Amino acid sequence: MPHEKFQSCIDACYACATECDHCAASCLAEQDVKSMARCIKLDMDCAQICRLAASYMARGSEFAQALCRLCADVCQACGDECAKHQMDHCQRCAEACRKCAEECRRMAQMA
Q: What's the predicted TM-score (pTM) here?
């Protein structure tokens, strides 16, 4: 079953999507929201692609490998941006993004 083979990547994708959603919402509550604009945009992009990649892996899509490569790139960009901000929600998001990028790269090489 495809979802069992890639379960750790699927789990990392869902965890990352959750952290990105939380980070975006928390950034919107920051004092200087304008300075968080890129972070919020990347959080939204990352959450969406993580959920999409997880669903492609779960059903064994022939495009899962290519999508996971792109997901890793988006996660890396989001993690790099979040790491620039000292807020706890950004730091937790950066860590989840790094882990997801690593899992997605590993999946793309295995598949």
A: 0.95
